[in-house]
Design brief:
It is built from 5 helices and 6 strands. It has 138 residues and is of the alpha+beta class. Strand 2 and strand 3 form a beta hairpin. The protein is globular and about 45 Å long. It binds zinc ion (ZN) (3 copies). The site of one zinc ion has 7 residues, from helix 5. The site of one zinc ion has 7 residues, from strand 2 and strand 4.
């Protein structure tokens, strides 16, 4: 049984063509994927609404997480195993390379805690660092 089927089964999702295709895109890429890229690469077979819903389902289930970018496009990356439905543990820093524009999950770098004024309740803190990635430095 393929990796994709295992992940879908584990999250109690039925195996559909769009789910398989989009999950394969994530597993086959190292780094994050932009919404537009996913749409383009899955677009021959699936319409925009299907792609959008599939991504939303994956986020809800803790399979992928979204990453904010400076140009307001959304990118997504695979979650680690400890994410599940309603519980993401994605408090790592994201790095966007100014040169190749790759978005990388820095899984071992935790987002520092931000001290908020009293009466403010944080839900999620995200941090994006831009610069030059290891591949572009060499
Ligand atoms: Zn997650
Ligand atoms: Zn780079
Ligand atoms: Zn990430």
């Amino acid at each position: 049984m393929s990796n994709v089927n295992v992940i879908l089964r584990k999250n109690q999702l039925s195996v559909t063509g769009s789910r398989k295709k989009i999950l394969e895109l994530f597993i086959g890429s190292n780094g994050a994927l932009a919404h537009a890229d996913i749409e383009r690469r899955a677009g021959e077979k699936f319409d925009r609404v299907t792609v959008y819903r599939t991504l939303q389902t994956f986020v809800d289930k803790g399979i992928i997480h979204s990453i904010p970018t400076s140009d307001n496009s959304i990118r997504y990356a695979l979650c680690k195993d400890d994410c599940c439905e309603g519980h993401h543990h994605d408090n790592h820093v994201h790095f966007i390379c100014n040169n190749c524009e790759k978005t990388i999950c820095l899984d071992n770098i935790e987002v520092p805690e931000v001290k908020l004024p009293d009466a403010f309740t944080p839900v999620q803190t995200q941090m994006v660092v831009t610069g030059i990635c290891i591949d572009c430095k060499n």
